[in-house]
Predict the structure.
Amino acid sequence: MRLWPLRAESSSPVLEPSAPPPSPFRSWALADLLRRRQADRRWRVLDLGEATNGNMLFFTSRGASYVVEALYDTTAPCRQGGRFDATSMRSLPNLLTYPPGTCFDVVLAWDLLDYLGPAGLAVLGERLAPCCHPHTLLHAVVAREGKLPPHPAAWELVDEQTIRQRPAGGPQVNPARLTDASLQRALGAFRVHRSYLLQNGRQEFLLEPGTPSLPPAVAGPVRRQKRVVRV
């Protein structure tokens, strides 16, 4: 913002008060994820959200390689009327394609899964599976109540157990309300490792490669793996 010098013949500019930053929340999933890293080797992180210097420094300062794939922007041509077309997504030449043998230890999906729908989630699972090993953890945050911003938020890692969300502005939309079971069935190649039901209307997931652990008839959450935590 440019501030002009005050003059006798003009009044002072009125500056609108800036909105307070969103409150950060305690992320038990992040803390669990970081505890899984192996100190004796370089670990690889794939971020499916927006690139931020803070998040890059957070991981690189802890000995990780950090790759960003802004998936929501990359798949923009595949969205029609708010829905993803799986055929169009599969035809994208550079969607989550890496050299053979590339495996990530951590994948950060943030709130992306709320916006992909069943078709988009299926393609995401297909493309992620080849670049994951059996101990890879996929982190995601899913809305449990209220409406969603028009597109995924920006996320900032404050410290090893705290995350701040910066929601996008614009008309809000109704989320798909993913359950543990519907999320696993849509992704196909991933199952719930742990989940945490937060008191801010969100649920955090840590998913791992493998066959979904729920039978097709089950539609409810995996309550034995869920913790309710305060934020």
